[in-house]
Amino acid sequence: MEGGCCSSTEKRKERENHHQQEKPYRGIRMRKWGKWVAEIREPNKRSRIWLGSYSSPVAAARAYDTAVFYLRGPSARLNFPECIVEDDELHDLSAAAIRKRATEVGARVDALQQTAVHASSTKSNSTPPRLEKPDLNEYPSPETSDDN
């Protein structure tokens, strides 16, 4: 029975490689429409903590890292161990507090990546950069008026 069938270890490696391509980081997944989401299971419970929806896999992975660090401590397996700041004391946090901290980190990373992508796309184009949109609810100040 040495036919054209793969061994079980080869099949497992093939599945792992396919899984690795779909899911580049631990604790995240991609929605059908392209957004990356992160969530984590609470220890000793069946419930999950929702960590948010992000436009990049790195932002979702950083949110996951923050949550897993607060849940499991410095021994947790992280996607980016070099990015965790250990200046906060590790103490028991509620699920809501962990969610809040993780979404703050994820949103910050997402915003930084979006501005980096936007900056690189404006550098590659020969068009001049856009000016900031003015706040239409604010009265113009004398130094910014065009009447000079």
Automatic annotation (TrEMBL):
Subcellular location: Nucleus
One GO cellular component term: nucleus
Polar residues biased stretches: 114-128
GO terms of biological process kind: defense response; ethylene-activated signaling pathway
Coiled coil: none
Statement: the UniProt record of this protein carries the keyword NAD: no
Location of the AP2/ERF domain: 24-81
Gene3D superfamilies hit by this protein: AP2/ERF domain
Primary location group: nucleus
Protein name: AP2/ERF domain-containing protein
Organism for this UniProt entry: Coffea canephora
